[in-house]
Amino acid sequence: MTQIITVTNQKGGVGKTTTAAALVCGLHQRGARVLGLDLDPQGNLGFNLGLDIGTGNTIYDVIKGTCTIEEAIVPSEYGDVLPSDIMLSAAEVEFNMPRREFLLDAQLSTIRSRYDFIVIDTPPALNVLTINAYVASDGLIVPMEAEVLSLVGITQLQETIETVRSTFNPHLKVLGILLNKFNPRLTLSRDILELAEEVAIQLDSQVFPPKVRRGVGVAMAPAHGQTVLTFQPKSRPALDFQEVVDLVAGARFARPREETY
């Protein structure tokens, strides 16, 4: 059964794309059939997964109806990718037809049986693109940094999630809050963890036990068209992300014992 997971937070710079790329790569490494779908007009997910951004069809063309979803999907060494570009920034104005919240869900319904996981990266905004991702998804992963403003973004997200549940997708779940750039030695990090756990309870969710620590490889990997899992596989962030992928993958796509660290 296909699981569609959206990585979301309306605040920018919290590691959404890094998390989405790590999920796509890690699940692919475990033998899962994975599609990474970029709903951010910046197009960074495709860039992180080694694509030549700015060429070929994108999710914008798919939703506009100028190409099929099959024509826009690009194979990569990390699995399939459905890229985006800056044209998608016009979505709020252009996609104004009735039931526009279901545009993505309708497209994914034609190909979802081909994949074990579809991972969606979203823009740092609560707009029609984000709502489309929520409507199409089974679960949400909410990355955040261990800082107050990042936490505020999550509390604002809660109302949107509840609206989507009550109006469009009653089965939507928050799989967990993921703390990025976490330093357990800092009092602020520990305080934010406590507050995040309180917010997670309100979302009927959890803070993921793995916390992703800081590392320069996270910032350097995209320049090499890689995720941190392949660029620096033994680095702290890579090991932490692998634990997160383990939780998402479940027993069906568990890492072989010799590959665990």
Q: Sketch the major β-sheet.
A: 7 strands, mixed
Task: Tell me, briefly, the overall form.
Answer: globular
Tally of separate helices: 12
Order of helices and strands: EHEHHHEEHHEHEHEHHHH
Our Rg estimate from Cα atoms comes to 17 Å
Which strand-content bin applies to the residues? 5-15%
How far from one another are the termini?
28 Å
Mean pLDDT: 92
Percent helix, as a range, is: 40-55%
Structural class: alpha/beta
Model regions low in confidence, pLDDT < 50 over at least 5 residues: none
Strand order across the biggest sheet?
3-4-2-5-1-6-7
Number of strands: 7
Structure, explained:
By secondary structure, the chain is α/β, with parallel strands linked by helices. A hairpin with a 2-residue loop joins strand 3 and strand 4. Helix 1 packs across helix 12 and helix 8 runs parallel beside helix 9. The longest helix is centred in the middle third of the chain and has 20 residues.
Q: Could you write a compact summary of the structure shown?
A:
Helices cover 41% and strands 14% of the residues.
